[in-house]
């Protein structure tokens, strides 16, 4: 879920066309959870094949990624590796929340309660062969798949700093802490979306956030941004009770460093040095290759339609769009590099 200090940074709305010809290193787990959350039936039930396997994420990767490629975007999907040990408590807490949401969803479904969809979204979890199936489909689509040694956002940030991508794609802001010069939000949810629990639709557009201009505007360094995050609380530490983004910013600007701020508060953060190091020098790899290949139309159809009961007519149409968009995209890429 990441840390929400987005209000501290200016978010610039753009059109998908503004990203034409640009490589986006997408946090695959982040976008997979989005697909699991939003691609559901009215009562919150996800898409399921005849074997009882959830396929909402596969639908998202095919149709919504094809939309991105048609817009001229060159997506690269970066998958998480082994999570840092500090993240275990967060992962356990998330699991507990999802189990509780699952119970509430079942109760709401029985009552015909409109809140069922909201609870269903909160119950989304990665299980079974979801990751392997997602990787397989993306490879069949001709897209680069990168396996990170640890956090996908850290790897995506490294790829942007290494000039192999223009931006990191994620709904979370953690990529900024990992040093991504640019992040793009709302790639998977662009368009009209219904607000949860309300009959109101809003127009959602992609957003760009630039690290350096944001830091300059706040008058802080990236190291101080990490200090702010640790005061608020991250995926790896609970933070200090009662400290939000604005108060944390004020404390760090007053003291310069988190250690002095903690002294004023009379608080302590366990493993502080290691947590800082996790963000400032995360585990990443330079052993990757970015190659976009021709989509395997027959492979996509066999995988989605034969194995997972997708509509062959719909998949064939999407695959035709994907192949045509990939031709145009490769010409753009050749010029970009």
Automatic annotation (TrEMBL):
Signal peptide: none annotated. Its cofactor is Mg(2+). InterPro entries: 5-3_exonuclease, 5-3_exonuclease_C_sf, Flap_endonuc, Flap_endonuc_arc, HhH2, PIN-like_dom_sf, XPG-I_dom, XPG/Rad2. Residues 139-220 form the XPG-I domain. GO terms for biological process: DNA repair; DNA replication, removal of RNA primer. It comes from the Archaea. Residues 329-337 are annotated as: Interaction with PCNA. Residues 1-98 are annotated as: N-domain. Mg(2+) 2 binds at residues 172, 174, 235. Its EC number is 3.1.-.-. One of its GO terms (molecular function) is 5'-flap endonuclease activity. It is an enzyme of class 3 (hydrolase). Binds 2 magnesium ions per subunit. They probably participate in the reaction catalyzed by the enzyme. May bind an additional third magnesium ion after substrate binding. SMART domains: 53EXOc, HhH2, XPGI, XPGN. Mg(2+) 1 binds at residues 27, 80, 151, 153. Interacts with PCNA. PCNA stimulates the nuclease activity without altering cleavage specificity. Structure-specific nuclease with 5'-flap endonuclease and 5'-3' exonuclease activities involved in DNA replication and repair. During DNA replication, cleaves the 5'-overhanging flap structure that is generated by displacement synthesis when DNA polymerase encounters the 5'-end of a downstream Okazaki fragment. Binds the unpaired 3'-DNA end and kinks the DNA to facilitate 5' cleavage specificity. Cleaves one nucleotide into the double-stranded DNA from the junction in flap DNA, leaving a nick for ligation. Also involved in the base excision repair (BER) pathway. Belongs to the XPG/RAD2 endonuclease family. FEN1 subfamily. This is Flap endonuclease 1.
